[in-house]
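hiii so um. not sure if this is the right channel but i have a protein structure encoded as tokens and i wanna go backwards to a sequence. like what aa goes where. can anyone help
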């Protein structure tokens, strides 16, 4: 098994490219890697990114990171409030994302 173990894999690409990327991700990472999607819109198949992920790589935990918030705000240490949504979240994971300027809420509502 050549799969790599990562606690998290944050995917932030154009939504239309997700369908092509997912099989490549699936081949490279272990099944316990938590995939976090940071994207908006519909995939090239016309569905939400999380639905595409669950269809193509159902064995992984998949969540959606949403704002309002932008990377430049986080790096500039401007206070940002984000939501991590998914159906298999563990609130203990919040410690993995601790930043002085970031508040992270958990939700099961991925839409």
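sure thing!! here u go:
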């Amino acid at each position: 098994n050549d799969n790599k173990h990562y606690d998290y894999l944050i995917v932030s690409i154009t939504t239309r490219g997700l369908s092509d990327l997912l099989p490549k991700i699936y081949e490279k990472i272990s099944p316990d890697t938590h995939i976090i999607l940071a994207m908006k819109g519909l995939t090239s198949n016309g569905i939400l990114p999380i639905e595409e992920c669950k269809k193509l790589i159902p064995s992984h935990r998949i969540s959606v990171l949403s704002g309002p918030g932008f990377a430049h705000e986080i790096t500039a240490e401007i206070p940002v409030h984000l939501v991590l949504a998914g159906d298999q979240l563990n609130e203990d994971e919040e410690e993995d994302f601790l930043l002085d300027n970031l508040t992270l809420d958990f939700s099961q509502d991925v839409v």
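oh and The beta strands are 8-11, 34-37, 61-66, 80-85, 102-107.
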